[in-house]
Design a protein that fits this description.
25% of the residues lie in helices and 29% in strands. It contains nine helices and 14 strands. The chain has two domains: 247 residues, 3-Layer(bab) Sandwich (Hsp33 domain); 49 residues, HSP33 redox switch-like (CBS domain Like, Alpha-Beta Complex). The termini are far apart. It is α+β, with helices and mostly antiparallel strands and 336 residues long. Strands 1, 2, 8, 9, 10 and 11 form a six-stranded antiparallel β-sheet that branches. Strands 7-6-3-4-5-12 form a six-stranded mixed β-sheet, with helices on one face. A two-stranded antiparallel sheet has the order 13-14.
């Protein structure tokens, strides 16, 4: 064997024991080379709690919006540019509208609209959503076109919708797990805190034919038309079987590190983790931005916003309240 040139550096990934230190509010990318799997693991704590408690959502609504936030981090954290990933649902269910805005590389904000009188009718997250659609938008900035994918919601949950999206739009074998719960902490009267976790796993073999999937439903094809079937690759079957063993409590356990969880799943095959991507709850609203938004309205509409001699605007995302005089809002004195 020829010795390497002294000008060539040979680098190897260090092999070490998984860290036992939990890291919240972060996405941990990973790969299982032996199974051609790549994925991301999200763990959310204080950031999620900040977003949900600003609105004091009822527990079922907080859980559903938490699932949407986790799904958004799993998808939005793959952006390789300073853009935005926006997940939005519009449905006929008790939670009629949700929006999660992820601004790369790390900023999160979210909001849900719901009918409190209908919440008791829904037994799970799927029933809270009802029927409608889920839209996922990638905004690359003012000088670039937006990309948007739509998925119909037929009474299923967000995991099911994510699987449908990747099947129809990306055509990449993908599985997603989402979990949200409340952690009880003692102390002065005790308090509940929201936690969440999620795992996205994709099958990305070097030979594309190994990732082939069956054709989509044949729709109006004549009766008796043979259903197209493709045998799943053994590596993908194994990966799905391992993912199916993950329990909700493992995804949200504050004492279980993400590295240890991934090691539990894939240690027999070997798993490589990469630097975690930190997340934070941070709204993009500001007094200047709200003032600019007000001036975009027609003069008549601005005048109608004046109540008790002032204009008050509340940000739906973070609940921040901004007060403006009629003059600051661009309202003429004669219109007040």
């Amino acid at each position: 064997m020829t010795a390497p040139s002294p000008d060539i550096k040979i680098t190897e990934s260090p092999i070490r024991a998984p860290s036992s230190v939990p890291v919240d509010d972060a996405v941990l990318p990973f790969e299982v080379d032996a199974l051609d799997l790549r994925g991301r693991l999200t763990r959310l704590g204080p950031a999620l709690d900040d977003i949900l408690t600003r609105h004091d959502y009822p527990a079922p609504v907080g859980k559903l919006l938490g699932e949407a936030i986790v799904l958004t981090t799993l998808l939005g954290s793959s952006l390789k540019f300073d853009g935005r990933f926006i997940l939005q649902t519009q449905t006929d269910g008790p939670v009629s509208f949700m929006v999660v805005d992820f601004q790369a590389p790390d900023r999160l904000r979210a909001y849900a609209r719901f009918d409190a009188s209908r919440l008791t009718q829904a037994k799970d997250s799927a029933a809270l959503l009802g029927k409608g659609h889920l839209a996922m938008t990638i905004d690359q900035g003012p000088d670039m076109s937006r990309y948007q994918g739509l998925v119909a919601l037929h009474g299923g949950g967000l995991e099911e919708a994510a699987h449908e999206y990747f099947l129809r739009s990306e055509q990449i074998p993908t599985r997603v797990r989402l979990a949200v719960g409340e952690e009880w902490r003692g102390g002065d009267g005790g308090k509940r805190h929201w936690r969440a976790g999620g795992l996205l796993m994709q099958f990305l073999p070097k030979a594309p034919e190994r990732a082939r999937q069956a054709d989509l439903h044949h729709g109006d094809a004549p009766e008796g038309t043979a259903v197209h079937e493709v045998k799943e690759d053994d590596a993908w079957v194994e990966g799905q079987s391992l993912l199916a063993t993950v329990e909700d409590i493992e995804l949200i356990d504050p004492d279980l590190s993400g590295e240890r969880l991934l090691y539990r799943l894939f240690h027999e095959r070997g798993v490589r983790v990469f630097a975690p991507l930190k997340l934070q709850a941070k709204c993009s609203c500001s007094r200047e931005a709200v003032a600019a938004m007000l001036k975009s309205f027609e003069a008549k509409d601005r005048a109608e916003m004046v109540q008790d001699g002032k204009v008050v605007v509340t940000c739906e995302f973070c609940s921040s309240v901004y007060h403006f005089t009629p003059h600051e809002a661009g309202v003429e004195e004669s219109a007040v």
